Amino acid sequence: MQHQLHQRRMFTAALLALVFILAAVSTTEAGKKEKPEKKAKKSDCGEWQWSVCVPTSGDCGLGTREGTRTGAECKQTTKTQKCKIPCNWKKQFGAECKYQFQAWGECDLNTALKTRTGNLKRALHNADCQKTVTISKPCGKLTKPKPQESKKKKKEGKKQEKMLD
């Protein structure tokens, strides 16, 4: 009889433990399901409007630009952003103006320059950019092509000089 009582208590304890575990799991899952979905806050803040990049020193390199936006409930209406103005020949058109350039044209023998045209691809940060631009650069050395026979004769002459030494 004592043995049956012990078995009954063990069975009751196991059953209670199982009920407790099931209750804990269902409460946890129910808590997950009951969470209300976050509603997206609608903002009355306008889009950022950016100034041109102003170099920290000189006329190119690292600099900053100022941004502003409007809205009664905006937490931030002004901010400063780091930027960079390239220190190369493209800087004459502004760092915010991106162009698609054609191939370089033939060399103008009167000016010793070659040119190419670029069409505006995009204007960053509301920059005021020209629709088309033309750039020029020096042609480089202008040399007449040498005939191949003269190179061969020079090589043969050098070989004969080495053989004589």
Automatic annotation (TrEMBL):
Renumbered residue ranges of the record's region Disordered: 137-165
Any one Gene Ontology molecular-function term assigned to this protein's record: heparin binding
Top-rank taxon: Eukaryota
Signal peptide stretch: 1-30
Ranges of residues in domain Pleiotrophin/Midkine C-terminal: 94-158
Domain Pleiotrophin/Midkine N-terminal: 32-93
Main localization of the protein described in the UniProt heading: secreted
InterPro entries, sorted: Midkine_heparin-bd_GF, PTN/MK_C_dom, PTN/MK_C_dom_sf, PTN/MK_diS_sf, PTN/MK_N_dom, PTN/MK_N_dom_sf, PTN_MK_heparin-bd_GF_CS
GO cellular component, one term: extracellular region
Keyword Phosphoprotein: no
Keywords: Disulfide bond, Growth factor, Heparin-binding, Mitogen, Secreted, Signal
Cell compartments where the protein resides: Secreted
GO biological process: positive regulation of cell division
Keyword Signal: yes
Function: Secreted growth factor that mediates its signal through cell-surface proteoglycan and non-proteoglycan receptors. Regulates many processes like cell proliferation, cell survival, cell growth, cell differentiation and cell migration.
Stated family: Belongs to the pleiotrophin family.
The name this protein goes by in its record: Pleiotrophin
Organism: Acanthisitta chloris
Organism placement in taxonomy: Eukaryota, Metazoa, Chordata, Craniata, Vertebrata
